[in-house]
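Bit of a strange request maybe. I'm writing a small parser for structure token strings and I need a real example to test against, not something I typed by hand. Could someone generate the tokens for this chain?
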Amino acid sequence: MYDSNTRTRGAPNRVIDLRSDTVTRPTPAMREAMAEADVGDDVFGDDPTVNALEERVAALVGKEAGLFVPSGTQSNFLALITHCARGEEIITGRDYHVNKYEAGGASAFGGAILTALPQAANGSLTPDQIAAAVKPDDSHLPVSRLVSLENTWNGRVQDQANIEAIAVVARANGLSLHLDGARLMNAVIATRRSAADLAAPFDTVSLCLSKGLGAPIGSVLSGPRDFIRKARRNRKMAGGGMRQAGVLAACGLHALDHHVERLAQDHANAKRLAQALSAIPGLVVDYPANATNMVWVTLPDGAFAPLQKAMAEQGILLLGGGNAMRIVAHLDVTEDDMTCVADAMAAYFGAG
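Reply from user aminoacidic:
Good idea to test on real output. This should exercise your parser:
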């Protein structure tokens, strides 16, 4: 059976999975931390490892309290429905995760209205867009309540000065702010600014443990203590209350201790692959200066499906469609793996 912790280039059955940084498997050390975790009933507040993780992440992002949940989608969902009553409005980006990839949960289950604005190519919104989107006090219109942003977005670090300017506009209009910081620690490593600094403009922050940090499950929603108390009640309604969840929280604590600084290696691997792919005729590679662990590639029309099949036959798994492809570097991908991928791509396109 394939062991994702195999690190030898060319090992039998070696699979290089570049579809997402969600595909990582727990390292042996993380599994050991799981086995040794002190546990209790988290719904009763009795799990010491969960409590420690919640306190750790809240302090990391500069907030009062945290709430451990199974997924980033649930973390964002709880934030949105705790901020907004039914019929109230969330202003966000058209291609942000909360609008595009969370099945409309805040609207379907929470009754909140998502107003999605077009973003710039780098993923940003502008203060003027936010100001223009805020609704006047009119009974015909929903009440604007929240601005939800994302950092990183598609692997791109968002400009902090622009975020702070958006926050000024939001506050002036009585709106709260939420950050989908699923990959916030990638931004921390890329900018060398603290998570608390990057999260300072926001009331609430969602941080994923199961992406670049390499845990098998879990996110933490952080914010004011009273807000998190309400979100905890909403978590129970959403079926997110867990019992002896310390075995999962232990993965998060281990990741925060051992897998943050190593994100720089993912960024370096992604950049190295982007440079190699840029030399292949017919490929247009998007890896801008603010990129982290994701490489975006435009292929010749219709090229992705046959490329995906050919690479899968060599143990390289890709994600995309039509003429577009996203490649994600992560904990289970080595520098040698990226060399293998570059060589395989070059050979496929006749450039090797």
